[in-house]
Amino acid sequence: MTPLRGRERELDLITSAMESAHRGDGRLLAVTGGLGSGKTALLRRLPALAERRGLRTLTAGCAPQEQDFPFGVVGQLLAPFPGCGPLDLVPGPDRSAELLSFVTDHSADQPLLLLVDDLQWADPDSLHWLGELAKRLPGRRVTVVVSVREGEPGADAPEVQACVERATRLVHLAPLAAEAVAELVAHHLGHPGEPGQITACHEASGGNPLFLTAALTALTPAGPAAGHAPAPPGTPLVALHERLTVALRSQPAPVRRLARALAVLDQEPGEETDLELVGRLAELDTAGSEEAVCSLRRLGLLADGHGPRFAHPAVREAAEESMTSAEHEDIHLRAARLLHNGGHPAERAAAQLLAVTTCHDGWTVEVLQSAATAARRRGALREASRYLRHALLGSSPSGTDRAALLLDLSASERDLDPQAGLRHLCQAFLLLPTTTGRALAAARTPPFLLGSCPPPVIDTVAKVAAELGDPDALTGAERQAALRLEARLRHVAVAGPGEMGECAARLRALGETPPMGTAAERELVTVLLHGATVTQRMTAAEVAHQADRVLQHEPAAPGHVHTALPHLCGVLAAAESLDAIGPWLTIARERARRDGAPVPQAVIAAELAHVLLARGRLQEARAHADEALAHGIMEWATLSAMTALVMVAVQSRDTKLARRLLGNRRETADHDYRPSPLQLLRGSVAATGGDPATALEYVLDWGRSAERAEWRNPALVPWRTWAAGLHHRLGQPRRAHDLADEEYERAVAWGTPVAIGRVQRVRGAITEGEQGLELLRESADLLQRSVNTMEAARTELLLGRRLLAAGRRAEAEDRLGRARDQAFACGVPWIAERACRELAGPAGSRQPVAVAALTRAERRVAGLAAHGVPNKHIAERLEVSSRAVEKHLTSAYRKLQVAGRSELAAFSALLPGPADA
């Protein structure tokens, strides 16, 4: 049982009246308060106090259903006495006086305490009797305590007010103070509550005991061990809801209407609602509205403040549920019209329309569209989509108005649910009647969405582009639309793979400096650069020059993910021109995070993974791949994004990531003739699992698909290099050399150090003797000048091993040291561990694994410390604080499981020294 807290003053007043009864000084006390203020709980606590003071307690509770029962309340009070029960009290001319004498006589033997709860519902005869009793209390040994719920219609009845006015003392139950709330929280939890818990409960309840009981259910009690029996889930909330529903139902019609109107309009917790607007919705004049508000406030259902606001969310719920379905529809629709006509924000009116099942009037669609536009501007894409979906209910089944809604909805959904956006986009295309309309719709469609459309939709777009004609013959908006359509159709490659080869020629036709003044021009150049890169119809230098120009003209914004610009990432990575793209993507990522839209964040994370992988920074690339997966990219991944994630999994040899990609991705690629990166992933899993034959089949299958699709550039996916290595493992040297030689010719034609150095490493690996060593040295020299640290580390590791086998230990240790340091720097632990093992030999086989766990900064600090450099000099050398040095050393000691510098010296051969740091 919940203790009575915060009512000590009220209890003192009543007990003082009880003590006066002993002296023959009878008194009437009236306890008043709103719903849930604790009147009944207070009265229930009085019999125990009366018994300790020698008073006999007589109780009665009033109910609305018993108001027509004469002397019903008096019968309850006097029921303990023979012949005075409710069924015995038949009205008569002298009955009231007889009963008054009866009470007076019995009080002479023992003082009496009469308790009457909810006096506002007492029958008239009982009220009259109580009034007469109040007149006779002076000189009698009787204390009478009645409670009245303020705000109830019956509380203002003349008979009730006459009785209350005769009270010696009016006891009003105010909201509980914070100290009382703290005590009740402690009782509920079994220990003192946290300040935040107490504040939250006090604010949620406003000090009202009824609302406080509901708020306490959100706290975790201490359990039976603290003396609490577990209650059925939600019991206090159910009881609260029932009491509020009954209380509202008993109110006059104007009060009920105002409560419902307030429930509809009071949508923002903590904000006051305009009383004039609420009154208009409730169809009340100013006086009627103020009177209804006064009743609700006295009842305790409104919080204190200038404007009307519910005291608890449960009051709003009870008011809403008191309406029938028809009333619910009508009031929300009228509220929306009032807000719309009154010049309120469109989103506020639209929120009302969302509660209406049909929106057939033209103004409703207009409001919802305006609200969607406002929501998009503030970055609330989910709300914008909700408004537009609801607007579709009021649009015609077929027509341009529905098509416009579908296009707006698709634009809102593309950052949240691209698959839903695709469905609505396809529906819109079929409804647009004019060439211009379809052209503008297709021009604003993200290429990756258009690429996933059914063939009839793509055919429609191709037809629209043909009707528009040559972009060079157009001007203004039509030219921009035609350029965008050309970019999208080349992205989709509707004519099959043969169209890819035309990209380089089309790009050259635009001149040495293709125009890039508009977004449409930049999109087209990007698609053409991608086609020229894939087919290798241009050199890396030519591609890099034009791609960097695009970045110079294009603002770094999250919206680029809905254009063809994500292809730039792959183009620049293949061309090894990565200085500008990294910072550009970083700016776009920060803006995407600020907007909070998952699709741009996922795509940009995949782009960054691609760029970092091209730099050989595998650990960072893996982190960005995880970020893309966390944003749900697997549900709609484009071919370029999927390829980036697959390459991270392949290069990191992460079978867990590989299986995750295989288990959540659709089997079909965006275009049937394009090679699926999943084949490469399956090959990587097979190779890691020790099945080179199966791995080779997967890689060759991907290669055949790539050739059919004119994907010839080894800088994108070096499948021939991988296949050559697998052939060599399977004892098929001729096939290995043929593939490697073909790859070498293409790499030289492309002209980037990574592409050439990578294939030279494979050629050196499959070539015996001094010739193989020379090929590996050539690979190492090329890759040392490249942007890809990981590829350089792989070559150094292989060359170091071959040199060790050839007995050239000095050069081998130099190469292996480089491999170790480069692998540590770029976050490729398996290369670092192998290099460390080769350097340390069998006796130090456990040390390299521990060293591989160090971060780059920890390795540099630990290396200097292991070679005897003092902390102060390390801080000066690395330009960091002494505290940072201590922090890195502490972390390194923990990872290496050493006690200090003396034990750290054992790792000096595996860590960079003063010459390397």
TrEMBL record:
<dbReference type="InterPro" id="IPR036388">
    <property type="entry name" value="WH-like_DNA-bd_sf"/>
</dbReference>
<dbReference type="InterPro" id="IPR027417">
    <property type="entry name" value="P-loop_NTPase"/>
</dbReference>
<protein>
    <submittedName>
        <fullName>AAA family ATPase</fullName>
    </submittedName>
</protein>
<feature type="domain" description="HTH luxR-type">
    <location>
        <begin position="847"/>
        <end position="912"/>
    </location>
</feature>
<dbReference type="InterPro" id="IPR000792">
    <property type="entry name" value="Tscrpt_reg_LuxR_C"/>
</dbReference>
<dbReference type="Pfam" id="PF00196">
    <property type="entry name" value="GerE"/>
</dbReference>
<dbReference type="Pfam" id="PF13191">
    <property type="entry name" value="AAA_16"/>
</dbReference>
<keyword id="KW-0547">Nucleotide-binding</keyword>
<keyword id="KW-0067">ATP-binding</keyword>
<dbReference type="InterPro" id="IPR016032">
    <property type="entry name" value="Sig_transdc_resp-reg_C-effctor"/>
</dbReference>
<dbReference type="InterPro" id="IPR041664">
    <property type="entry name" value="AAA_16"/>
</dbReference>
